[in-house]
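Why does this matter for the project? Reviewers at the last site visit asked to see concrete outputs rather than summary tables. In response, this paragraph embeds two records directly. Each consists of the residue sequence and, immediately after it, the corresponding structure tokens. Nothing has been edited or filtered.
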Amino acid sequence: MIELKYKALVLPLLTCSLLWGCGNDGKDGEPGTPATVGMSLNQASSIKAKITQVSIDAGTVMVDFDFTNANGVAITDLDTYPGVDTLGMGIAKLVPQEGEGYKTPQWVNYMNNLVAPNSAAIPSGYEDKAGPKVQPTIETSCRQECLTQPEPGHYRYTFRQNLASVTAIEGLDLSYAPSLVHRVSMELRLDSDRARLINTHYDFVPATGLEASDEMTRIVENTQDSCLRCHGDNYSLTGAPSLILHGGRRIDTANCQMCHTSYAADPETGAPLDLGYMVHKIHKADYLMVGYGGRLHDFSEVTFPADLYDCRVCHQEGEGRPVDAANFRHHRALACGSCHSDSTDPVTIKEEMHASYQAEHECVVCHSEKDDEGAGHHVTDAIAKENVRLDYRAALVANSARLEGGRLSFSVSFMDSKGVAQPSPNTDTRLKYSTLYLGFGNDVDFTKGRASINLLTLTPVAGADGVYSYDVASSLDSTKVTAASASAFITTQMCVDRDTLTGVACGTGTDEAFNPSVIPGKAVVFNLSGDTGVSPRRSVVSNESCAQCHDNQYLAKFSSKMHHSGRRSNFEGECQTCHNPAWASSANGLIQDHIDFKVLIHARHGQTAVVRAEEITFPEYIGNCGNCHKAGQLTLAGLDKVPATPAVDELDNPVEYSPTAAACVSCHGPKESLLSHIRTNGGAANDPRGTYQAGAETCAVCHGEGQAFGVDKVHPVRFD
């Protein structure tokens, strides 16, 4: 033990003596070169660009930006990376407008071309409209030649185009105006991959060198909150109808504004390319233009799913929206003319508008000042309908319904949002429609029975404090419905006045809406035995999801694209009281034409219906179930008691489809490989009626949401 201790001391002592022998010169070593912290684009799984500053010196525009991954790690080879297939920069000034009332400022691009029409591409009937037109542009040819990297991950793009020598365009003031707000736009794409695409912009005032505040610039629209409510943004999915344009390079409306200016036009058709005009016309299905390479773009088959007259469908206001979102309320000839005139000439539009409206309206209706509400008449219809929809409440009183001796008794509550009692529908002169819908069999998709009761013509047997009792004859089969879990819905239609923005006795409003407000009632779960704890129907879709595109405007100002004249309004269950597998007349058609809700909605939006086919331009990818369904709604749970959906095959033989099979085939069609797979796993698919035994399907084991081959995995599902 002593020997071991001694040996343990030898090495440290020897080491110290050697160090003493080396001596000390008293100087520190020279500092090394700091290591560069960064990565290559080959290593980056995400990319992000942020413009930090723009400077303009003697007409030379220099744009500084940081280029990193999503975690902020510098990417150091953008200037040399061979896969940069797109790097475009644009610059424009925001020019105030003059005229009667407030005019929204407009972008004037410094880089423009006078483009002659392609004579071979002029559509028939447009020969007199074709001619040279001004088209703004951006700088795209310089790319990495104009790029330097002063510091790792920090780049500078120097425009090749000097602002002092831009191409002159007759009628446009293209002089450099440093006191005005300017915008620089940037588009960058790598490896022709839409998943590696960046659109960004920077608003600034050259005279101060400072970034422009939101109040100083012009945004109007927010791509995420406005356009992407309906349109898809799965840019990386090939074939998906996502809102990506110009060869898969442009996705941001702020950048779009730079070229789609008030003076831009299509040389082959004369159609204005002004963003407001063009977007309005496209959604009206009334726009035709010739694009790159002479390709004709005809938008006459576009279907718009909401109230086209309600500007707020797209012009979203409120918290989180652009501070100038309300600018749509201030008129511009082209924007107004896109709906009110067939002319594309601002002077002609103005003359037509004056001739049509001056006699009955004050000038301030259109020509309002900045802080006043202009064009308010465009939204009063929708606001009045929304006010009463949010205020009026009609619902079955839970557990008040009984079925005895062929008579159904029940009570209904009519209140406003503050709990103030409302009249019974038969005495409420504001109402045009009030119907109670009952569906029996929450666990079997209401296939045990249904009933609809017109409350508008029914006199209560008793009532007080907004709660009214009724007693009606009923043909419901008590052996099927008495113990069944059930759901009740009430849909109401109320007349509204656009002057007071409230409900009004029908026919008495000073400016009464052409169509009433549709007020959907919430589901009330009950059974006729008065049991508590009754389970609701499974939740697989929400009204909020439908409203993303349909916007709760079941009846538009002048018309409705919703079936049943807007009288069915709760997509979470009311529609299914009729739209279920038990609807007899649908059993005589192909499965894609059945009105069973899970079939109908898929087939209608996916354009797979045959006899019931309807032209719909669905703006998202139909394979993204997350368009309509929320996370947790695709588990395929709750289908074990749902009966098969009857149909006929192509030879008119009676067949049936098990619940999951019906939904799958409604999109994919009755492909033999799919039918065989379904049968192998306990389902019925194009099989003789009576084949399916409820609960025999095992689809959910593999294809339920979250499973190994869940619908959320085998489809490109993106939940919001």
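We now turn to the second protein, recorded in exactly the same manner.
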Amino acid sequence: MSTEPGLGATPGADEAVEGDGSTTAAGPAGADGPTAGTDGAGDAQTASPRASATSGTDDDGGPGGTAGPGDAPGGDATAEAAKQSEAEAELAAQRIERERIERRKAERKGPIASGAGLSGQAADLLAAIRAVESGDRPAATVFAAPEPAPSPRSAPDPVVQRPRPAPAEPAPAEETVAAVRAVLAAGGAPESLAPQAAAALGEGADALLREDPWQLLRISGVRPDQADGFARALLGAECGPDDERRGRAVTGWLLEQAALAGHTALEMPALVAALAQRAVPEPEAAVQDALAEGDALVFQDVLDPHAPEPEDDEEERPVRVLVGLERYALAEESLADGLARLVNSLSKDAPEPWEAAVAAASGGTAELATAVAGHGLVLHTGGEAARAEPAALLAAARSAGLRAFVAVHAPEGHRRPVDGAAAGDADREDSVGTVAGLLSGAEGPGRDAEGALDLDLLIVLDAPQLDVESAAMIVEALPDGARLVLSGDPAVLWSAGPGRVFADLLAARVCPQIASRTPDPGPLGELVSGIGAGELGQVAAPGKEIVIVPVRDAGEAVHRTVQLVADSVPRAIGVPAEQTVVITPGHGGAAGTRALNAALKERLNPGPGRFGGFDPGDRVAYSPAPGRTVPGQVVDADADGLHLSCAGEPVVVPRERVEQAVRHGWALTAHQAVGARWPAAVVVLPGDAAQALSRPWVYTAFSRAGRHLSVVHGVEQALPRAVAETLPKPRTTRLPLLLSTQVPPASEA
């Protein structure tokens, strides 16, 4: 059997894992963005009309919010709050935080003149939205002047109050759901969408759907062609492609799809072209209608805000016209404002405790501590081994009497290098938690009298997984004078949600950037480091750390994967099946997560699936909210729902949410696995996955392995080509420009 450049070939799973171990490695790479049947930002675990399902396609919600593990509820809630599901608590807390952001934006001093340099279509769009806006409409805040940097406030006597998860919003009334179900049935849509439609559209959802059937597009997973069929069934001859209701709805749907692909806004020409592709006869008019109705916002961004004003008054400054959804516009502006506040509110002289923290640090941690002592925002980059540096900073800060906390992306992050630094802390539970737990109030410090986190230092690991909304909520919650460290590996996949916060901050260069000099050790570290640089070279693996298993087709890939997980890796490497993760590019197809999980369940935990397809002992991937995945295990089921154990915490998933929120979890996509690590990983690359591979996907998938990596390889030369040539798909964001108007470059600060 031939061996590809950079790859070691072995004839079978047993021989590969149990041979002499002198195997070289390589792996897959997947596109960083939604593709059919692949792991783009597309691991959304939401319902969609099953009529759209096709072989090899992820029909669970298309390109929408996926995967990164999260956390389980904290233990400080009252008995009543403890009955809430983690998802309800987190989403309710996020709603409250968004309201706070909107209130803050409404307080901004006043709008600046905008649009004077525009003409033609852009000017018409601005006029359209202004013609119908009231004075307090949130859209006006998009053009508001930057809020002056607040002066440091005197710290009040702290009133430490550990926040409890916010009360959950009640589920739609049964009568509302029943009425919506009747409308869906009349239009030929799946009646199972009724709870989602009632929740998304609110009271009177049935009447709204009858009046405007294209509102069905507000339900995750529904496509325009499906909404068109629903509208034809309800409206009959009145239905047509030129209906302005359709144009508005498709505009909103396209912006939602852009957000799921990572964009916080779309350039106007791209949006108009996409509307034309979807048979909207007058796409410009459709955009204007959406703006007039407040369904979207328009922005004009000067391409070079630091360029001198034109000498000729008639000369126009080059601008970029963008259209986006209000929620992401508010979040991105709030994030820029909050970061500017952290940077500008910090005293130039480091207080005595920080001097003590710097003195206690050594090696690479000393450089990081010195930067943090003198700056409100610091970026830290590095691989897995580099996590030891922010962990040591946590220990040094706490030993100096500073209030410090580390937030990780996945519950498994608790058991990685952070633990080594926090092991001696009596209150370890108060020093390390998850981002989701911090935002929901289930984990983390208390709040001071003004509602800010009672912290001097917050370290966020896995920072590339922050989307604009979660990042904005974190920054808004920090008090003036606090330090924020964002640490992560810039080579991994970006966040499942919109934005690319960490990459944008690195590019903006508005704060110190500390690059770790600590390399990841061993053959796995060497392999992953090479992939990050675009090279898939040969790596000696005398301890069988890396093994390549060539396969001819998807059926053989599934067979070899089961053999590796159940037999070869436990016997030859000593890693049991429950500590091995399988990673594949997508959910659909003959070797996607569904097919692999079915085969692995049959081998590792056979059963009738009496609890909605699940049995006690099944490994699962639980999605408490879009964009997050928590690995867990089924414990039991009863009238309350499916009982899981996730990161050692009990979780109950209500029966009506099981189909949407829980998958079998022996096999995951790379987006679902990011932020966590396992002793062993089996990365499956079937031949039909070649188009899904990219350098970030390969890097992320391969770096999930701690001790052993097996690559079930069927993509031939597509693998090294993807590593060398396929970079992340670009995302359209506004954060760099927003920051440039408020924070000078770090070299000028």
